[in-house]
């Protein structure tokens, strides 16, 4: 009968709108450090890694042009700049793991299909 609702119309639906907050930004992640907290949340701090940037450099002037730079002041080694701190319950950590596994499977499928061409 045409008057009966279809199966799709009878199902309850919830719509989610994704709106970026004022603090939304894209973060490059080179690594993650963290552990479980006392109350049972997974604490994850993401970081980006880069060589240390000198605080002061000096250049020799040669014939009105700059020669190579020499670091006068600055850190040696690399910097791991902590960008985002995440606190996840165990259930959210499982959801994150499953989501990552799904994305990795998608990626492997894309790579496999690309190799078949």
Question: What does this protein look like?
Answer:
- Helices cover 26% and strands 37% of the residues.
- It is of the alpha+beta class.
- A 3-stranded antiparallel β-sheet has the order 1-2-5.
Outline of this structure?
The protein is of the alpha+beta class and 117 residues long.
Mean pLDDT figure: 90
What is the string of helix and strand elements?
A: HEEEEEH
Strand order of the largest sheet: 1-2-5
Uncertain residue segments: none
Work out the helicity level.
25-40%
Specify the overall morphology.
elongated
- How far apart are the termini? 48 Å
Q: How many extended strands?
A: 5
SSE class: alpha+beta
The assembly state of the depicted protein chains is single chain
Largest sheet: 3 strands, antiparallel
Radius of gyration: 26 Å
Strand content: 35-45%
Output the number of helix runs.
Answer: 2
Would you spell out the secondary-structure blueprint of this structure?
Blueprint (H helix, E strand, L loop, with lengths): L6 H4 L20 E6 L5 E10 L4 E7 L2 E9 L4 E11 L1 H27 L1
Antiparallel strand pairs: 1-2, 2-5, 3-4
Primary descriptors:
117 residues, 2 helices, single chain, two-stranded antiparallel sheet, 3-stranded antiparallel sheet, alpha+beta, 26% helix, elongated
């Amino acid at each position: 009968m045409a008057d009966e609702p279809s199966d799709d119309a009878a199902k309850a639906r919830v719509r989610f709108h994704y709106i970026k907050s004022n603090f939304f930004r894209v973060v490059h992640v080179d690594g993650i450090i963290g552990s479980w907290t006392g109350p049972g949340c997974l604490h994850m701090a993401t970081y980006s890694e880069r060589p240390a940037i000198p605080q002061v450099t000096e250049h020799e002037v040669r014939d009105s042009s700059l020669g190579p730079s020499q670091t006068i002041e600055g850190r040696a080694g690399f910097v791991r700049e902590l960008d985002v701190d995440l606190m996840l319950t165990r259930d959210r950590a499982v959801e994150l793991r499953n989501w990552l596994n799904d994305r990795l499977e998608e990626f492997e499928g894309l790579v496999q299909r690309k190799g078949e061409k």
